# Entry
Amino acid sequence: MNCVILGSGKGSNARAILEASTQQFLGNTKIKAIFSDQPDAQILSIADSFAIPARHLSLDEDSAFISSDESKALFEIINEYSPDLIVLAGFMKILPVDFIDKFQGRIINIHPSLLPSFKGLNAIKRAFDHGVKITGCTVHVVTEKIDDGKIIAQAPVRVMETDSLESVTQKIHAAEHVLLPSVIAKISQEYIKLSQ
Ligand code: GRF
# Structure
């Protein structure tokens, strides 16, 4: 199963995926490339350090949206790797409908809350400020609506009285780093079937 990863930042989830791949935990998954709209993003250095092609996506940095010209270019560059699965791991752009349609059902995203609660930005802080006692992370299918597609898997994280925003954030990231590779492994082994 050919897999590519898109991200904009630290790349800790990409690292967890690559480590799982190195340890042969991802079934027949091959991580073919990692893409980022941010040329200096750490996720690209992580790709380099695992000898995975690291590709910069040239997108308008002033917009969260992707224009139709950009979308065509994005499809071309990503399709070079014939992906069976596209993983969004902290990708801060909103994918256009035509792009999502071309890969229907084969794009997944990790979000740091128990969806459908706390969609969108700053989800960990908003859940913490709300006083939730259980939060967590979700892997879901990407659709044109933000953080809204079919839920594939979730991991809960308890919020204790002694927790701070920082400690909850760490616990959620730790949960993500287990959940996302395990979902990729299950997709590659067809324990999880993505509708086409
Ligand atoms: C993760 O918390 C993920 O849930 C969210 O963006 C963050 C990406 O972190 N979508 P990293 O770049 O993988 O470290």
